[in-house]
Amino acid sequence: MGYGKVLGLGLAVVVLGVASAWAGDVAKGKELHDPSCAGACHAAKGAGDVNALYTRKNRKDSLEKLKAQVAFCNQQVLNSKWFPEDEADVVAYLNATFYHFK
């Protein structure tokens, strides 16, 4: 196998690994979301239905905006010290449950 094919194969493995890392784990995302987001923040603000934020008319309208909001809440609001993988898990949960972005 030539050098170019080996390099191409290696690059494909790296890209697939990164893509799967960003895909997120829905079950783990729910485990992180429920106590931190819904419990600590949404319920504390007297929201009633802690998930109403995700179903309201003017909710986030793109996956990029959802990712940015989760990162903002993690770093600025909750200070939960989640790793980027944890944020990806929460985004995966929210997207699978409420948003359904592609």
What is the element layout, followed by pairings?
Layout: H1 3-23, H2 26-42, H3 52-55, H4 63-77, H5 84-99
Helix pairs in contact: 2-5, 4-5
Signal peptide: 1-23
InterPro entries: Cyt_c-like_dom_sf
Keywords: Signal
Explain this structure.
The chain is mainly alpha-helical. The protein has one domain (25-99). It is built from five helices and no strands.
Order of helices and strands: HHHHH
Our count of domains comes out at 1
Query: How many runs of DSSP E, i.e. beta strands?
Result: 0
Distance between the termini: 37 Å
Structural class: mainly alpha
User: Biggest sheet: strands, sense, closure?
Assistant: none
Number of DSSP helical runs? 5
What fraction of the residues are assigned to beta strands by DSSP? under 5%
Evaluate the radius of gyration. Answer: 17 Å
Shape: globular
Percent range of helical residues: over 70%
User: pLDDT below 50 for ≥5 consecutive residues: which ranges?
Assistant: 6-21
Mean pLDDT: 81
InterPro entries: Cyt_c-like_dom_sf (IPR036909)
Signal peptide: 1-23
Protein name: Cytochrome c domain-containing protein
Keywords: Signal
